[in-house]
TrEMBL record:
E.C. numbers: 2.7.1.40
Annotated keywords: ATP-binding, Glycolysis, Kinase, Magnesium, Metal-binding, Nucleotide-binding, Potassium, Pyruvate, Transferase
Protein name: Pyruvate kinase
InterPro entries named in the record: PEP-util_enz_mobile_dom, Phosphohistidine_dom_sf, Pyr_Knase, Pyrv/PenolPyrv_kinase-like_dom, Pyrv_kinase-like_dom_sf, Pyrv_Knase-like_insert_dom_sf, Pyrv_Knase_AS, Pyrv_Knase_brl
Organism: Ructibacterium gallinarum
């Protein structure tokens, strides 16, 4: 079973060994994440180039995801590098450029004093130190420390349930995004998104720097993001539930319900949703996940997440490849428990569907009804495969891509296997080409399978998905006129004349002969089907076939030369076609 839920792996020192990166790619990594909160451009560039070289060598569509630092507040540096705070003491936060001590530290956001008030909770180092605002004097914030603990250089500061007015885009983020555009990144994971306007601000930077093809994943990490998630979903290509900072900003007991709610909203709107942070964190140092971690990953899959993410587990962990394989195994097992057809049938449909959504929904319905091996969709922009993915069909989605970036981006979509395809002049030629590529490039379909195909006309124009087609995968050996809608699979007996038929025919064979006569009526009664080169529904073979109620293909030019004795073929009585081997006929 091919895994439908995608896995993002974070790059870092643990993946700098080319062999480790190769094992990750071959082991199921679907997206490579580069965290720009840490490291230099030189370090990032080395890893980026490794991914590009390795994915080309292996022929895998591994997209690059740039995770921005985002708007954050941190402490400055301390004279001794670290101080110990005591419960009940005062500790001052100031924007002044000073070296910190046990009584005061610099903070990176000068406007914090305007956003807080007496009694506001302030957390340092992901909540290890909790303080309450006692007094505000100009830009200085005097706090009471509520618990003992250490604070060292550049630690995070969080202010739960306060809507900070700080600018969303820093110069560093703008520079990082420009760097990402230059290096061909496929996704931006936008940290600490508070509203739809934050996403639009990133889109503006992308457009100004010719990076509008890069897709945005909005990271929901604070109360503002949670409250505004409906609007955020509308303007981005996906959501990441970043539970690390969210767990600092929001009470931990609320996180499970928030996770389920966001996944459900993304599922209903057809957006990708990524569940991230601390999924297999114990595997940073241990070779096996905890039972709680296994349940966490599985429950995200049960909820309907599009992807799950590994952070420190692969970036700095001791067992990066084992962590990936463990996550993949958990995902596959969880998917086996899900009745995707039932979920699809129970899904509420939006009455305002457009043509692409309607065709995509019909493709899923048809695939389920016919037991299709796959849905094959050919898309220029990648929109249709993403829509089909949003419906969560039971069968694989194979996406034919004519654009390299779309080819990589679709690797992050639930259930989608991207393949490279070329432009063709007609939709029929494009569909045949896509089926042929899918047969050669994936192990998802084989000859004899039924596939459902979607595409658009005119060919190559984005947003024109308007065709739904059901096709049998296989080699059409010949075609003619069918005298019966029945279909059959059997062994070929080729006879050039009556004498050969009487000599070589075995009961149950499919008799292939230029024409039939009453001289071989005894054989015809025992044949499973008849193929003749003589045309016409009034021909002897056609009349006999209709009388005996067996499939007959007449007018099959060259049948006695094309078909070979002893080979297995399938007759499609509806279409009047003959396929090589055993094929499933509608």
């Amino acid at each position: 079973m091919k895994r439908k839920t995608k896995i993002i792996c974070t790059l870092g020192p643990a993946t700098d060994d080319p062999q480790v990166l190769k094992e990750l790619m071959l082991g199921g990594m679907n997206t490579a994440r580069v965290n720009f909160s840490h490291g230099t451009y030189e370090e990032h560039l080395k890893r980026i180039n490794m991914v590009k070289e390795m994915r080309e060598e292996l022929g895998l569509p591994i997209p690059l995801l740039l995770d921005t630092k985002g708007p954050e507040i941190r402490t400055g540096c301390f004279t001794e590098g670290r101080v110990e705070l005591k419960k009940g003491q005062n500790f001052t936060l100031t924007p002044k450029a000073i070296e910190g001590n046990a009584e005061i530290t610099q903070i990176t956001y000068p406007g914090l004093a305007k956003d807080v008030e007496r009694g506001t909770r302030i957390l340092i180092d992901d909540g290890l130190i909790e303080m309450a605002v006692n007094n505000i004097s100009g830009d200085d914030i005097v706090c009471e420390v509520l618990n003992d603990g250490p604070v060292s250089n550049h630690k995070s500061i969080n202010v739960p349930d306060v809507n900070l007015t700080m600018d969303y885009m820093s110069q560093k983020d703008i520079d990082d995004i420009r760097f990402g555009i230059e290096q061909g990144f496929d996704y931006i994971a936008a940290s600490f998104v508070r509203s739809a306007f934050d996403v639009l601000e990133i889109k503006r930077v992308l457009e100004q720097n010719h990076g509008e093809d890069i897709q945005i994943i909005a990271k929901i990490e604070n109360r503002q993001g949670v409250d505004n998630v409906d609007h955020i979903i509308r303007v981005c290509e996906g959501i990441m539930i970043a539970r690390g900072d969210m767990g600092v900003e929001i009470p931990f007991e609320e996180l499970p319900s928030i996770q389920k709610e966001i996944i459900e909203k993304c599922y209903r709107s057809g957006r990708r949703v990524i569940t991230a942070t601390q999924m297999l964190e114990s595997m940073t140092h241990n070779p096996r996940p905890t039972r709680a971690e296994a349940s966490d990953v599985a429950n995200a899959v049960y909820d309907g997440t599009s992807a799950v993410m590994l952070s420190g587990e692969t970036a700095v962990g001791e067992y990066p490849v084992r962590a990936l394989k463990s996550m993949a195994q958990i995902c596959i097992k969880a998917e086996e428990d899900i009745n995707y057809v039932k979920r699809f049938d129970e899904r509420h449909l939006d009455s305002g569907m457009d043509v692409t959504n309607a065709i995509s929904h019909s493709a899923c319905t048809t695939a389920h009804d016919l037991g299709a091996a796959a849905i094959i969709t050919v898309s220029k922009s990648g929109f249709t495969p993403r829509v089909i993915s949003g419906f969560r069909p039971n069968c694989p989605i194979i996406a034919g891509c004519m654009n390299e970036r779309v080819y990589r981006q679709l690797a992050l979509s639930w259930g989608v296997t991207p393949i490279r395809t070329e432009m063709k002049k007609t939709s029929d030629a494009l569909f045949e080409h896509a089926v042929d590529r899918a047969l050669k490039q994936t192990s998802l379909i084989e000859k004899g399978d039924i596939v459902v195909i979607t595409g658009g006309a005119p060919v190559g124009v984005s947003g024109t998905t308007n065709i739904l087609k059901v096709q049998l995968v296989g080699d059409v050996l010949l075609s003619g006129t069918s005298a019966s809608p029945k279909s059959v699979c059997g062994t070929v007996c080729v006879a050039k004349n009556t004498a050969e038929a009487l000599k070589n025919f075995d009961d149950g064979d499919i008799l292939v002969i230029p024409e039939t006569s009453n001289d071989i009526i005894g054989i015809l009664r025992k044949a499973s089907a008849i193929i003749t080169e003589k045309p016409g529904l009034s021909s002897h073979a056609a009349v006999v076939g209709m009388t005996l109620d067996i499939p007959v293909i007449c007018g099959a030019a060259g049948a006695t030369e094309i078909l070979k004795n002893g080979t297995v073929i399938t007759i499609d009585g509806v279409r009047g076609q003959v396929y090589s081997g055993v094929a499933k006929i509608l």
